[in-house]
Amino acid sequence: MYIAIAGNIGSGKTTLATLLTNHYGWKIQYDDPEMNPYLIDFYNDMRKWSFNLQVFFLSTRYTSILEIRRKNETVIQDRTIYEDACIFAPNLLGMGLMSERDFQTYKSLYDLMISLIPPPDLLIYLNASVPTLVRQIQKRGREYETSIRIDYLQSLNDCYDAWIETYNGKFITINVDMLNFSENTDDLKTVISKIDAVINTCP
To answer: For the domain with range 2-199, which CATH number is right: 1.20.1050.90, 1.10.40.30, 3.40.50.300, 3.30.230.70?
Structure first.
């Protein structure tokens, strides 16, 4: 199976992916944003570097999915290709940080890629309020994230809420404000129970 975790910056995707890998024995495909050579430039000047940043993420995400689908094993991925095109790029466009021309070029690349790959067998969506995101971002202490704007996180959350309403694949939603799976064993068990209820019905 191919299982993917979606959620805003700081929602706990990597943490949950690691915990689930330890529990189920799955293979994990980490999302490493620091490998994007445009990331620091982007946070310093979003308008200038937004297109470069998103194209790099899109290409690496697509390559990762091809690699996952070639493996005869269950893999969990801690970011989805959908978020690049349905959340981050439209958000940048809406905030005036990406031009319409760049967005349409980006979208055409995404449409081509998505037509060639199947969706995840299960999507796990981590929903978190902005205060929770800020707290977890501060806790992990990545220097390049210190300049992330609150309005940027809120705008992303709005995009996530709109996107998940239209997602047609199999998914579950985890409320990160209510379930502290990283520190509370019972909360993690609740998450695992929700996942078991779905994957045990997968063909």
So the answer is: 3.40.50.300
Distance CA 163, CA 166 (A): 5
Query: Which amino acid, 173?
Result: T
Helix (H) or strand (E) holding 25: none
Which residues are catalytic, by number?
78
d(CA 194, CA 180) in angstroms, rounded, equals 15
- Domain ranges in the chain are 2-199
pTM of the predicted structure, to 2 decimals = 0.86
Give the Cα separation of 202 and 2 in Å (integer).
11
Residues in the chain: 203
Q: How far is CA 203 from CA 1, 17, 66, 199, in A?
A: 10, 22, 21, 8
Mean pLDDT of the chain: 90
Sole residue written with tokens 């310093």: 44
User: 19-52: per-residue pLDDT in tens?
Assistant: 999 999 999 988 777 788 898 898 889 899 999 9
